[in-house]
Amino acid sequence: MDAAGRFPPTRHSIVAGAQSDDPDARRQAFDVLVAAYWKPVYKYLRLKWQASDEDARDLTQEFFARAFEKAFFQRYDPDKARFRTYLRVCLDGFAANERKAARRLKRGGDHAIVPLDFQSAEGELRQHEIPDGADLDVGIVVGSVVKGLITGLLIGFFARTRKSLPVGIAIGLVIGLFFAFLVAAMPSGTGEHYYWQIMLPGGILGMIVGYATFTYRRSKTA
């Protein structure tokens, strides 16, 4: 994850070391993983989960402490998913549980997490605007409306030229949803995609607009 919020490529040898049967080798690999991934985890919590600076620090420390205690990394199966995907799944589950329980317990036992320079991570985040949840919702709504209008115009156009509303809807939806998919496929600032949030409302709005333009033009020419 760079300053904008993306996770780095997986270091397979280190991940394999974290699954070693040798406790010393496993602990050493875990420390390396923490050093490599604590900053992406912190930024992910700030960006996706909208955690405050203080909460994100607490959650980052606790997540890695929990990962060590519960052997999160030892359960990773490279045949099922990339490590960064697995890490995000673990982190999402952990953050959801912590938010639901509304608690911030510090755990660590007798093992020390490597020192984490949160100020540098926050400084890198500040170089990029942290998206507000409301801004993200507005962006999805605007994207859906724009794609819906375009799809509606396409439906109306093909319905008039083909003299068939069903044919116009079919052709217009295929073209409109294709372009909507291309837009939705572009990741947001947190790396997430919003396929159905953009495509489904846009398609529904497109059919409404297409039907309206088709019937309006037909009534004008009648």
Walk me through the structure.
Helix 6 (133-162) runs antiparallel to helix 7 and helix 6 (133-162) packs parallel to helix 8. The chain is mainly alpha-helical. The chain folds into two domains: 12-126, Orthogonal Bundle (Rna Polymerase Sigma Factor, Chain: A); 133-221. The protein has helices spanning 12-18, 23-47, 53-70, 83-101, 118-126, 133-162, 165-185, 195-221. The protein contains eight helices and no strands. The longest helix has 30 residues, at 133-162.
> How many separate domains make up the residues?
2
Shape estimate? elongated
Tell me the Rg in angstroms.
Answer: 24 Å
CATH class of the largest domain: Mainly Alpha
Give the terminus-to-terminus CA distance: 60 Å
How many distinct helices?
Answer: 8
Count of beta strands:
0
Q: Would you identify the CATH architecture of the largest domain?
A: Orthogonal Bundle
Q: What pattern of helices and strands is seen along the backbone?
A: HHHHHHHH
Give the SSE layout.
Blueprint: H1 12-18, H2 23-47, H3 53-70, H4 83-101, H5 118-126, H6 133-162, H7 165-185, H8 195-221
Helix pairs in contact: 1-2, 2-3, 6-7, 6-8, 7-8
Short account of what is shown:
With about 220 residues, the protein is mainly alpha-helical. Helix content is about 70%, strand content about 0%.
Keywords:
222 residues; mainly alpha; 2 domains; 8 helices; 0% strand
